[in-house]
Specification:
Elements lengths: L1 H23 L5 H14 L17 H7 L6 H11 L3 E2 L4 E3 L2 E8 L5 E10 L2 E6 L1
Helix pairs in contact: 2-4
Length: 130
């Protein structure tokens, strides 16, 4: 009985860890969108970046470049990976209505500061300015 309890406990912990990882790579929060960017840079799975821009929103050129990295040449993909694989969120995310500002550090040394500006549409957050 003790072994069964231990087994069930391990399964529950594993499932909660998987759910936490899934939540962190979700467009349900501005932080999740930033994590999608960082994760794509770390893993080379650039296809997921296509989801973080919405064609119905006014997205700036830099943001469009991020969202189309999957279609870029290998040199551009490598540059994206070098700059965003070190990325991290700093400070609190500022959310006002359907607008959000996420301050990040990124760059080859992870020390370059920039803001990701996002809009919420249909319960998902989308990158509109970088």
């Amino acid at each position: 009985m003790k072994q069964l309890f231990s087994f069930v406990f391990v399964i529950l912990i594993s499932l909660s860890t998987v759910q936490a990882q899934t939540d962190s790579l979700s467009q349900s929060t501005p932080e999740g969108v930033a994590q999608i960017i960082f994760n794509a840079a770390k893993t080379g799975k650039f296809e997921q970046l296509r989801l973080i821009c919405h064609q119905g929103l006014d997205t700036d050129g830099d943001s469009k470049q991020i969202c189309t990295v999957a279609d870029a040449d290998k040199k551009s993909q490598a540059s994206f990976a070098a700059y965003f694989s070190t990325g991290k969120i700093v400070g609190d995310v500022l959310i006002k209505g359907g607008n959000a500002k996420v301050v990040i550090l990124f760059g080859p040394d992870g020390k370059k500061s920039e803001s990701l500006i996002m809009l919420k549409k249909n319960e998902k957050w989308y990158l509109v300015s970088f």
